[in-house]
Specification:
- With 333 residues, the protein is α/β, with parallel strands linked by helices.
- Helix content is 32%, strand content 29%.
- Helix 1 packs parallel to helix 7.
């Protein structure tokens, strides 16, 4: 007979893993959910990100990606209505997108999305190219992840700082959820995922109130108390060592876009590895652990869209957990 309290292990303590664990615990009363990870905030890839909510291009089912994006946007809108939104790390953010495609999927989710005229570009944008104005959210993971961890533990969730060499080593659970980001490549060597290295500069520039996103690599993104300057997309590069030439290039490019940044206070630089894949993988499979069939749910390969898609993917993951729990396979355990 199946346990009345299904045991779930989430491998990975970043925004994808933590949100998945939290959502499963919300949706499956009585479940025992444990997060295994060698790293937690402030040492995850999401903590390095600017937390800028934008539907970056991802491979796969575009309708599903749009759904996950909308669900995440709705979640952040809900959290922003709370009186502790600043402590959670959520705030609206307006600004300009230059030289980017503007499909209907973007236009319909941002009510103030519009093309910018020449005079407005001259006054505020300071660069050439087709330009759009929009308001989105910033989700600052240095605040958001600790808040979610606190909420997860309030619901009875467990956390164990442990490195997982192989998914099959995770024993004693009915369901294992793989949210390991770039580490999934080591767990599943045949996967097509590869690192997309990003390097950023973090500065204090309180006069910068609006974001600027130019093409794929140049951005000035205010967070709640600092500003992130970027960036890079170095495919296949696993190095987390900071590159001084890259830092100089980022700063020079951003200062050309916003000359006043020459007077900012530089707090530091960081590098992280986006888990780039042909498409985001959220899928229910299975594996054998000590002769026992265990449900295995994958939730990884988000590239630079982990923060943007996290809540929608967590909802999808929770739905797959519930699907398995209602199946004959769980009844056989």
């Amino acid at each position: 007979m199946p346990s009345t309290r299904p045991k779930v292990c989430v491998v990975g303590g970043g925004i994808i893993g933590l949100s998945s664990a939290y959502k499963v615990l919300q949706d499956v009363p009585g479940s025992q959910v444990t997060v295994y990870s060698s790293k937690f905030s402030p040492d995850t890839t999401a903590d390095i990100s600017a937390g800028f909510i934008f539907p970056y291009a991802c491979g796969g089912d575009q309708r599903l990606l749009e759904l996950w994006f909308k669900q995440t946007l709705d979640r952040l809108c809900e959290l922003y209505k709370r009186d502790d939104a600043f402590e959670i790390g959520i705030a609206p953010l307006s600004g300009y997108v230059v030289d980017a495609e503007a499909p209907d999927s973007i236009r319909k989710h941002f009510p103030d999305f519009r093309e910018v005229g020449d005079r407005e570009k001259e006054l505020y944008v300071h660069c050439e190219g087709t330009t759009y104005f929009m308001t989105t959210y910033t989700c600052e993971c240095l605040k958001y992840l600790p808040w979610m961890m606190k909420e997860f533990k309030k619901l009875g969730g467990n956390v164990l700082q442990k490195h997982v060499e192989k998914l099959e080593d995770v024993d004693g659970f009915d369901i294992v959820i793989n949210c390991t980001g770039i580490e999934a490549k080591k767990l599943i060597p045949t996967d097509d995922m590869q690192p997309d290295r990003g390097q950023i500069i973090i500065v204090k520039a309180p006069w910068i109130k609006q974001f600027k996103l130019v093409g794929d690599d140049t951005y000035i993104l205010p967070r709640l108390t600092d500003v992130v300057l970027g960036g890079t997309h170095q495919i296949g590069n696993y190095s987390l060592e900071l590159s001084e030439p890259t830092r100089k290039h980022i700063f020079k490019t951003c200062c050309e876009l916003e000359p006043s940044l020459k007077h900012c206070e530089v707090i530091g630089s960081k590098a992280g590895l986006r888990p780039r894949r042909s498409c985001v993988r959220v899928e229910l499979t299975s594996m054998f652990v000590n002769g026992r069939n265990v449900a295995l749910i994958h939730n990884y390969g988000h590239g630079g869209s982990g923060v943007t898609l996290h809540w929608g993917c967590a909802k999808q993951t929770s739905a797959l957990v519930q699907k398995f729990l209602s199946s004959n396979e769980f009844a056989k355990l």
